[in-house]
Amino acid sequence: MKFIYIAIITLFLSSCNSLLEEHPESFINPDTYFNNADQALTAVNGVYGKMLHRINTPYMDLHLYKDLGTSVSGSKRSNENLNLYTFTSNTGQFKNIYSGYFITIERANFAIDRISKMGDEVLNFTEEEKNRFIAEAKFLRAYSYFGLVRLFGAVPLNFKESTSSDDFFIGRSSVREVYNEIIKDLEFGCEWLYFKNGSSLTPTYKSADLGRVTKGAAYGLLAKVYLTAASCKRHSELNDSWNLDINKYDWVNEDEYYTKAKEYAEKLVEFSNTGANVGLEDDYEAPFFYDNENGKESLFELQLTDDNSQRGFSCSTMSGIFGASNMPTSGKQKVNTANGFVESFIQSYTADDLDYANSDPRMLISINVNKWAKSGQKLENIVAPKDFSFVKFKSASPCYFEHGQNQVLLRYGDILLVLAEAYNELGDQVNAAKYVNIIRSRARNGSTISADMAAPIGVRYPVSLQPADVSETLTQAEMVDIIYQERKWELCYEGQTRFDAVRMGRLVSEVQELKMYGKSGEDAKNYTYFQQCALGIQAKLDDTKKSPAAENIVIHHNLFPIPYAEMNRNPGFKFQNPNY
Fold first, then answer.
1. Backbone φ, ψ for residue 388 (5° rounding)
2. Which of 205, 289, 417, 444 is the most exposed place for a label (fewest CB within 10 A)?
3. How many CB atoms lie within 10 A of CB 282?
4. Tens of pLDDT, residues 319-375
């Protein structure tokens, strides 16, 4: 049905100024659209375009959603139903997340099918280039399905261009089927994608292609996919009796999948060691800093600009220190850190303050440790440790709400911990410790980048003695806990914590342990939270009162509900996730 093609092309053309500044001025007949390489490029850019749009996208502020209601995000704001586990299938965020992923998938299907049909008569378009374009679209499709299957479980699986309305009304495919297709797409990417610009390996992107998905991104994401499936089988609650058969992971061969995760992660390390312009930054703060976008640690990041149409990432403002709604000096502070998680970074206090030489410097880079009141004056009005927020993605310049700083979706440090976890699950604690200690060694370096936007006055993220190296003699069970905690410290507020908690079967138990904190007294108003702790006048943990999230969470919250609107309009949907 041609109106569907025209609608899809309209969506493409409205977003194609996102990556390579393509600006087509008119509609192109869908029957003659793919006649040259530039038109194929425009179609692929349209897939990226959806990910960059600031309205109804699951790729940007989903970082906020995915860490809400976990052991690292302790907000108890009554209007945050995702955090409090009071959500239903009618909760608006689910519709935005769900539909946003599927629009990207539909665009990818259209680009893949149409580019695949381009014949040899197309000038200046080699088979290698053609397959690279297809591989880009397949990676973005796989990334989107990986988000969907982890959040919603079984979802409709459509890997072809939609040509009629019937193509949009299909039933839910099993988790197994979805993973199989994700793996196929990423394997294609491993074969045909290019290396990052600046690599000594070939084929390599040109400098004008900065931001396109790379061969390293495909290997890294594939390692995560295999690790996730294996750990869901071995550790999660997703095979318990409450769940639907289509959501289960009992089909996974754990050792085979952990081995695959190890092999793909090792290949990425090999790329790093042989000149692929991929690796761990010397400074932990570097991947999140405005002036270091697309650095060597970044495997995949959204290319945002300060232009209104593509700035969309509001994490800094939504979580920043409370004041007027402009960054970097203030924000809305709607997403707060969990106090227990903040304290987990700290080894000791000095006589009147935090012992920075014995605390993990990543805390100061990730979390705002000063309490600010609405007036913007430090500790002027109320003092409540629950109000401290994360600042990992702080903007480097003043902005209002959204800003143009790129958003990192996949980075090398994450994959090193994937490799450590795979080694441990396969019984090799020596190599597991090796890769954890690479991450910890970098963490101890502190940061030379900071503009003091998160640190207490005068603190410059100094080199620390913490976190100490992990022993190679730990048992497998001990190493599981070490790596799980390390992922929280390393990846907090990057949208990984909820996924990790679910696949490791810890989401419900961790949230049920969250406690309430009371307010500090009047004598604390001139001190930072950590000074309060050192002076013994901090807000005290109330062991008798659980957080609202702890009271509400139950096992079915491991998965989000399929949005009611989708269940209602799609006759192919026979089953909602249990208890929604």
1. -75, 145
2. 444
3. 12
4. 554 444 444 444 555 667 787 788 888 887 777 667 878 889 898 888 776 554 444
